[in-house]
């Protein structure tokens, strides 16, 4: 690792492959789709048991206020319809844009697939640092920005929708229990 002083800021270079700028930029454009698709396919191949909406990673936090914080801060309802539905693109994927039915089975499947989508997008953000291996130091920040811009909105939508669907499922189960007790 090489360290350089740049206007009172210490910059650490992780670059180990020195490519011509054009090739480095071209490689960025080639690698991002590969990383994104690989993350989606890995998430798709994982067992549903890894994607419980009640697990530490996916459970709704108090500060999220059952997802309403995302509407308040980001106005998620206004733009979520413009995001692509990965389930429609990948063979065997589950479409999350609309709930096809309100059956308990479908709502449970939605919750699993929502966690899977969040995991896939979290995983897709991680390789931003790889670009520092062959691109100039400033490129890493641009790659991080790209990763956030492309994946954070999708994560926000999952974290907005999941508590609402979980609440719907809980209400249906409670209604079913009360009907059985009558």
What order do the helices and strands come in, and which of them pair?
Layout: E1 2-6, E2 9-13, H1 21-45, H2 68-74, H3 76-79, H4 86-89, H5 104-125, H6 137-181
Helix pairs in contact: 1-5, 2-6, 5-6
Mean pLDDT: 88
Low-pLDDT segments: none
The geometry reads as elongated
The radius of gyration computed from the alpha-carbon positions, rounded to a whole number of angstroms, is 20 Å
Question: What is the total number of structural domains?
Answer: 1
Placed side by side, the strands forming the largest sheet appear as 1-2
Q: What is the terminal-to-terminal distance?
A: 71 Å
Based on DSSP secondary structure assignment, what is the total number of beta strands?
A: 2
Question: What is the structural class?
Answer: mainly alpha
Beta-strand content bin: 5-15%
Secondary-structure element order, as H and E? EEHHHHHH
Q: What share of residues is helical?
A: 55-70%
How many helix segments? 6
Question: Main β-sheet: number of strands, strand sense, barrel status?
Answer: 2 strands, antiparallel
